[in-house]
């Protein structure tokens, strides 16, 4: 056999054996079950688009006896993840365990075995993404993580590829369905935070321990990933100012409506003067902005690029099938690379290693934004003038005031909207005001984002 004939034989042999691509799944929970369903229900569509059959060769989980509502052959189930990690016939490993360990150890082993990884693990990537991506590069392996942010919304691919020609000016995201469901219900139907949270738990929209969702931690995990992609850096979770929604009351939502706003838990990032602003907190946004209209468990991410302008991505941010859709999309992307004998065609963050840089994070104390302030005070003459005096002493200018529901000798709310104010000065002012004997409770404050007008 001549050299040319040998070369043709090798090429045809490689193509032939690539008609089936074996994958393994670690974590057979809700999303893992969804992945099995998508691979089964859409097998023909996937094969027609890919030109190869994706074969789920092995599934690992601590509990392999529980009925998931989807049939799989018992022979492919195992309680030992190493049977997948060390199987040379498996090319792609999907990690859907969640948490930091042992997921991190498993992923690093997979990559060091020259296999490719698909994961939905936002907590892991937001805290250890640098180590994972560098290990992937060292082993010429791919890491797909579309499902880590926004469920079925293809925001990761958009930042890595679709918007690669842009400098990203800003990111505003509703990226936690639980928090958005609670705020939407409080806005549209009324009810206290605690009562709506209980209903969300009953419907399965909130965990038994909802801390990560309602205190903004889950949103911060996802924002860290978006910032790393948008700005070519490795930001740490601790760099992101994080505040939740548990202090928001029906009264605050009512006043927000009167001023023409809605309250949303927003992930916010932008770059200005070489510094990155990174924060998660309850935010008042204009009621006519598209983000304000995102209700229930839906997610949306509003991006502004210097070339494309404003774009918004909307869809289901969690759930079995939307998240599984994103996981399988990553699997297909990597399979396409395998068919062409390629890897790392698109780098993990879509930035070259030498261009990834450390950035300075803007301290929240230096934030300048308008504020909503709600004071609970005794209904006495001169209270408003005392409060406004302290605000004025700290360079905080008042835009408007609402004082309702007079109760002589009792507690009444005073609501103030400010012009642009510096966070540091506002916190100093509130520290003084909250010590006044006429102030009955800690002041509620909500930051306002005015730079989100329709057409921005």
Our measurement of the CA-to-CA distance between the termini, rounded to an integer number of angstroms, reads: 66 Å
- Which blocks of ≥5 consecutive residues have pLDDT under 50? 7-13
- Major sheet size, sense and barrel closure: 11 strands, mixed
Give average pLDDT, whole number.
93
Count all strands and give the number.
19
**Number of helical elements:** 15
> What Rg do the Cα atoms give?
25 Å
As for the number of domains, it is 3
Strand percentage: 15-25%
CATH class of the largest domain: Alpha Beta
User: Which structural class is indicated by helix and strand composition?
Assistant: alpha/beta
CATH topology of the largest domain: Rossmann fold
Based on the coordinates given, report the CATH architecture of the largest domain.
3-Layer(aba) Sandwich
Instruction: Provide the CATH superfamily of the largest domain.
Output: NAD(P)-binding Rossmann-like Domain
What form results from the Cα inertia axes?
elongated
Percentage of residues assigned to helices: 25-40%
Overview of the molecule:
The strands form three sheets. Strands 7, 8, 9, 10, 11, 12, 13, 15, 16, 17 and 19 form an eleven-stranded mixed sheet that branches. This protein has a six-stranded parallel sheet with strand order 3-2-1-4-5-6, with helices on both faces. The chain has 456 residues and is an alpha/beta fold. It folds into three domains: 3-144 and 321-355, NAD(P)-binding Rossmann-like Domain (Rossmann fold, 3-Layer(aba) Sandwich), CATH 3.40.50.720; 155-317, 2-Layer Sandwich (Dihydrodipicolinate Reductase, domain 2), CATH 3.30.360; 365-448, Alpha-Beta Plaits (2-Layer Sandwich), CATH 3.30.70.260. Residues 7-13 have low confidence and may be disordered. It starts with a helix and ends in an 8-residue tail after the last strand. Helix 2 (30-41) crosses helix 13 and helix 8 (177-189) packs across helix 9 (193-202). A hairpin with a 2-residue loop joins strand 9 (261-272) and strand 10 (275-286). The longest helix is centred in the last third of the chain and has 20 residues, at 320-339. The chain has helices spanning 3-17, 30-41, 43-50, 82-85, 103-112, 122-138, 155-162, 177-189, 193-202, 211-214, 217-231, 250-258, 320-339, 383-393, 423-433, and strands spanning 20-26, 53-60, 77-78, 92-95, 116-119, 143-144, 168-174, 241-242, 261-272, 275-286, 298-305, 309-316, 360-361, 368-369, 371-378, 398-403, 411-418, 421-422, 444-448. The protein contains 15 helices and 19 strands.
């Amino acid at each position: 056999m001549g050299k040319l004939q040998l070369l043709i034989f090798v090429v045809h042999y490689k193509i032939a054996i690539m008609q089936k691509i074996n994958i393994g799944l670690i974590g057979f929970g809700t999303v893992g079950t969804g992945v099995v369903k998508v691979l089964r229900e859409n097998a023909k569509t996937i094969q027609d688009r890919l030109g190869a059959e994706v074969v789920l060769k092995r599934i690992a989980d601590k509990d392999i006896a529980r009925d998931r509502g989807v049939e799989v052959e018992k022979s492919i189930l195992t309680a030992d993840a190493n049977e997948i990690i060390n199987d040379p016939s498996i090319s792609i490993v999907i990690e859907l365990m969640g948490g930091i360990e042992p997921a991190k150890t498993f992923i690093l082993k997979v990559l060091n075995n020259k296999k490719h990884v698909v994961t939905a693990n936002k907590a892991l990537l937001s805290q250890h993404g640098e180590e994972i991506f560098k290990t992937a590069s060292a082993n010429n392996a791919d890491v797909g993580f579309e499902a880590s942010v926004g469920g079925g919304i293809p925001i990761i691919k958009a930042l890595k590829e679709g918007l690669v020609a842009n400098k990203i000016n800003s990111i505003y995201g509703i990226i936690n369905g639980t928090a958005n469901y609670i705020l939407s219900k409080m806005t549209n139907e009324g009810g206290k935070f605690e009562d709506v949270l209980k209903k969300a738990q009953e419907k399965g929209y909130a965990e038994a321990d909802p801390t990560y969702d309602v205190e903004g931690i889950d949103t911060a995990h996802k924002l860290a990933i978006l910032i790393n992609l948008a700005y070519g850096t490795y930001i740490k979770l601790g760099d992101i100012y994080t505040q939740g929604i548990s202090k928001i009351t029906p009264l605050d939502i009512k006043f927000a409506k009167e001023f023409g706003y809605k309250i949303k838990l927003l992930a916010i990032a932008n770059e200005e003067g070489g510094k990155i602003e990174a924060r998660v907190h309850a935010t008042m946004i204009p009621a006519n902005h598209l983000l304000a209209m995102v209700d229930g468990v839906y997610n949306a991410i509003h991006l502004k690029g210097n070339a494309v302008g404003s774009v918004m991505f909307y869809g289901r941010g969690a759930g079995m099938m939307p998240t599984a859709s994103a996981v399988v999309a990553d699997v297909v992307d990597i399979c396409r690379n395998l068919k062409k004998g390629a890897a790392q065609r698109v780098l993990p963050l879509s930035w070259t290693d030498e261009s990834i840089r450390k950035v300075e994070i803007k301290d929240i104390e230096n934030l300048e934004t308008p504020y909503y302030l709600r004071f609970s005070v005794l209904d006495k003459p001169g209270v408003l003038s005392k409060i406004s005096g302290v605000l004025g002493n700290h360079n905080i200018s008042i835009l408007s005031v609402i004082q309702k529901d007079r109760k002589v000798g009792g507690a009444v709310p005073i609501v103030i909207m400010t012009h642009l104010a510096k966070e540091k000065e506002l916190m100093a002012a509130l520290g003084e005001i909250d010590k006044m004997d006429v102030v009955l409770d800690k002041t509620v404050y909500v930051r306002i984002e005015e730079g989100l007008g329709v057409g921005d």
